Amino acid sequence: MPFSIVGQGTDARGETAWGVAVASKFLAVGNAVPAAVAGVGALATQAEANVAWKGIGLALLDEGATASVALQRMVEEDDRRDHRQLGMVDGEGGAATYTGTSCLDWAGGIAGPCFAAQGNILVGPETVSALAATFEAAAGQPLAGRLLQCLAAAQAAGGDRRGQQSAALLVVERDGGYANLSDMLVDLRVDDHVDPITELGRLYEAHTLLFGKTPRRDWLELDGDLRVEVEERLRGLGYDGELRDAFTSWAGAANLEERVDGADRIDPVVLAELRAQ
Fold first, then answer.
1. Quick check: 147 and 7 in contact, CB under 8 A?
2. Rounded distance, CA 143 to CA 98, Å?
C-alpha cells in the first residue's frame, strides 16, 4: 500500500482547509485511503486498510476527540491493528500517526503540527522524511499544491519500493466547492498510470484553471480599450448581444463560470483564456 500525507492548511484565499495526498503501487488508491470533512479533520487508512476507519475516525473527531485520542481508540478496538497504518489531523491541526508492527518494511510515520506523514513497503524512511520536510518547508502555500509537492518529493526520495500506479488528492474547505454549495475543494484521482504523481499534477493544473480563485484585488476593470477588446473577441467567437450575456454564455461554454461575476471586472486568468481562443 501507499505513502500519504494528511494535513491542515489554507487555500489560496487564506481559508482553512484539510486534505490528504496519497500514492501507491496499487490500483485506484484514492478509493481506499483518504477521507476528510471540513471543520472536522482528515485521515488516511492504509497498509491493510480498514476502510471503516474513515467513518469511525471522522465521527470521533466530530464528537470532539483530538487526533491522538481518536487514533488510540480506533487502534485499541481493532484486532488487526498490527497490520494497519493510520494518519490523522483534527479540526485544530492536531496530528497523530500509527504503524502496526506487522506492516511490511519499510514502514513508519512522522507527525508534526498540522500534518501526519506515513508509508509502508517503502524503499526506506527517507520517503516519509521527504513528506514531512516538504510540508513544513511549504508552510503558507495553498494546501492542495503543498500536498502535491509532498508526493513529488517523496517519490523523488524513493517512494513505494514496488514502483508507481495510482495517486489521489482530496482537499475540503467549508463552502469551498463548486458554486460554494459543497465543501469539496479538490477531489482528483489517477487510478492506473505509469507516472501517476505527474499526471495528478497535470489534473490539478486543469482544476486550478477552471475552479481556482484569483483574489478580487487582482481582477481588471472591464472598461475602455479592454472592454472593446473583450466585446470584439466574444463576437468573433459567435457571442453577440449585451456584454454581460455574451460573456456569461461564453464562460459557461468554456467551463469558466466559476471565475466570472458580472461584466464590470474580469479575472486575468479568464482574459488569458479568452485571448487564447
1. yes
2. 23
Amino acid (one-letter) located at 217? R
- Cell numbers standing for residue 168: 489521489
Q: Are 24 and 30 in contact (CB under 8 A)?
A: no
- The CATH T-level fold of domain 3-211 is Glutamine Phosphoribosylpyrophosphate, subunit 1, domain 1 (3.60.20)
Cα(38)–Cα(198) distance, integer angstroms: 27
List 22's β-bridge partners, or say none. Answer: 4, 168
Distance CA 118, CA 131 (A): 8
The CA–CA distances, whole Å, from 273 to 89, 176, 219, 248, 276 equal 37, 23, 14, 14, 5
Q: Where are the domains of the chain?
A: 3-211, 216-276
Q: Quick check: bond before 250 cis, omega within 30?
A: no
Would you tell me how many other CB atoms lie within 10 Å of the CB of residue 163? 9
26's CB contacts (< 8 A; 6+ apart) are 1, 2, 32, 165, 166
What are the helix (H) ranges across the chain? 29-32, 52-62, 67-76, 126-137, 143-156, 196-211, 224-236, 243-253, 268-276
pLDDT tens track, the chain, 277 positions: 799 999 999 988 889 999 999 999 999 999 999 999 999 999 999 999 999 999 999 999 999 999 999 999 999 999 999 999 999 999 999 999 999 999 999 999 999 999 999 999 999 999 999 999 999 999 999 999 999 999 999 999 999 999 999 999 999 999 998 888 899 999 999 999 999 999 999 999 999 999 998 989 999 999 999 999 999 999 999 999 999 999 999 999 999 999 999 999 999 999 999 999 9
